[in-house]
Amino acid sequence: MTAHPLSRRDLLKVTVLGTAALALPLERTIRAKSVSTIAASKIPAPYTVPFAVPPVLAPVRSDAGTDYYELVQQQVVTRILPGVDTAVFAYNGVVPGPTIVANRGRQTVVRQINRLPDRHPVLGYQPWTSTHLHGMASRPEYDGYANDITLPGQYKDYRYPNAQPARTLWYHDHGVHHTAENVYMGLAAQYHLYDPQERALPLPKGRYDVPLIIRDAIFAADGSLRFDDRLHSGVAGDVILVNGRPWPVMDVERRKYRFRILNGCAGRGLRLTLSTGDPLVVIATDGGLVPVPQPVTQLRQGMAERYEVVVDFAKYPVGTLVDLRNLSVPNTVDYDHTNKIMRFRVAGEATDTADDEVPARLAPDNPVMTLPESAATRTRRLRVKKDGAIWTVGEQTWAQIEASNFTRTFAAPAANGVEIWEIENTSGGWFHPVHIHLVDFRVLTRNGRPPRPEELGPKDVVYVGEGETVRVLMRFENQIGRYMIHCHNVSHEDHDMMSQFEVGTGGPDPITTAPARDLPAPPL
Ligand code: C2O
Ligand code: CU
Ligand code: CU
What is the pLDDT of residues 339-374, one digit of tens each? Predict the structure, then answer.
């Protein structure tokens, strides 16, 4: 814990609620009415704006083994609140960005063109970017290494192997020290990887397979997005957006739907539940299908975690309203309407009854779920904590990695080595969703006990709550080289809760192997 007389935590309480808030017990969730300064009349009532899904991106071209895509990162003015202009950072003009659909065994090349302004319109920093495809075992030079930056006026072609089992991934900005601002401004989207085994299952498909990107936001009086991470504690917005729409309402048919839920918040943890008390049936986690479906009435979801759930609307009569709610998590700032996410309105009978099942067994042979704990050759301990004003992971900060000219590492697992990492959060005042790049891991234990039911699947982010110790098992397969590990509270990550590990020896350098180039770009 910090030795400072007045910690940032305390400061933030002062700023949010006034000095009386200092009397609050440390672990209590803070509540306030709102934080946006835009007129309340400009914020729509929850469940009035129609739901929509992001567009699917078409490839620019395809050849025998590869699909080629192009994305332009640009500042555009859009309407998130009805009738209010808001500047955002978009991929191809939309926020969240277009969904990329990929198939296991076919490669993807994604050209990222940075046409952002030379300065952020409000914050004034230069918006360099580095794009990470979160959930993909990419080579180091295509993994969105924080310092492998693309400046405004440059582009970079990212190559993805798509060699892993089917899953919901997401691509988002990872530019060093500005990930939080860039993601908050809108640089985030889903990426769906399919494989034949998963496609053969009778799970909901097509229009019944729906991405839900949840994030919060703060609107300034002039309608612009206000970035306030409360002295690097984390952003806590009062407006909840799903796929870029405030608390939308979606018409559904009386049948099963699959939802690919991403917590895309910069700093807000979620605990999702249905207003009916009926379960969310977890069918997949970050790394794809779970071995066996897990019905849960509450789903705790830290930032960057993906949970795929099936909801069966067949049991409700037409006209029923089913709300997806947020029960919150400790050490989060809640506002009047952050307990609401979106509404489903059961609008009619099923128009298609194919693929309306949840099989009892989904992916019994997932590599990391069948990896025995006894295969591990070593256990490493890793602390996540605050040292004075700095967030650290494994007693390291990214500033130290930079100062070492990127040679310093927290761990050096052998290529294909199997290890257990024990991640410990001794603080009472913060939770940290810890993300390990490159690998899928299995949660072995949480505080010495079995994992939560929703996390009984392959993962790449794990919620390490207040006072928790989580043990995870993984094989360092697919690639060699240096990869990041960090907290996915992106404000923590930027200041400076990020380190790296190196798999094997002689891997490609993440920064110099495939650097960004100046525009104009040759044809893809
Ligand atoms: Cu989703 Cu290193 O990030
Ligand atoms: Cu990642
Ligand atoms: Cu953190």
Answer: 999 999 999 999 999 999 999 999 999 999 999 999
Which among 87, 209, 105, 219 is positioned nearest to 166, based on CA atoms? 105
Closest Cα to atom 3 of ligand 1: 134
Q: Enter the tokens of residue 493.
A: 């990550």
Q: How far apart are CA 165 and CA 198, in angstroms?
A: 8
Residue type, 486: H
- The Cα–Cα gap between 233 and 262 comes to 21
d(CA 307, CA 304): 10
Q: pLDDT digits over 423-478, tens only?
A: 999 887 899 999 999 999 999 999 999 999 999 999 999 999 999 999 999 999 99
Cα separation, 289 vs 205, in Å, equals 14
Check pLDDT > 50 for residue 42: yes
Q: Quote the CA–CA distance of 334 and 170 in Å, as a whole number.
A: 26
Which strands make up the sheet holding 418-424, listed edge to edge?
390-393, 378-387, 418-424, 469-475, 441-446
Q: Report yes or no: 156 and 516 within 8 Å, Cβ to Cβ.
A: yes
Please say whether the beta carbons of 517 and 262 come within 8 A.
no
Q: How far apart are CA 167 and CA 283, in angstroms?
A: 11
Q: What are phi and psi of 117, to 5 degrees?
A: -65, 160
Where is 13: in which H helix or E strand? helix 8-17
Burial 274-307 (b: 16+ CB within 10 A, else e): bebebbbbbbbbbbbbbbbbbebebbbbbbbbbb
* Binding site membership of 172 for ligand 1 (Cβ less than 6 Å): yes
Residue 174 · residue 146 · CB < 8 Å: yes
Q: Is 306 in the pocket of ligand 1 (CB under 6 A)?
A: no
Give the H or E element holding residue 258.
strand 256-263
**pLDDT tens digits, 386-409:** 888 788 998 899 999 999 999 999
- Give kind and range of the element (H or E) at residue 441: strand 441-446
Which ligand does the CA of 497 lie closest to?
3
Q: Give the C-alpha distances (Å, rounded to integers) separating 466 from 8, 221, 470, 495.
A: 17, 35, 11, 19
Which ligand neighbours the alpha carbon of 487 most closely?
Answer: 3
Instruction: Give the whole-angstrom CA distance, residue 280 versus residue 312.
Output: 9
Q: What is the DSSP string of 146-171?
A: TTS-B-TTEEEEEEE---SPSEEEEE
CA distance 435 to 242: 23
Which one, of 88, 383, 416, lies nearest residue 223 by Cα? 88
Q: Which atom of ligand 1 is nearest to the CA of 498?
A: 2
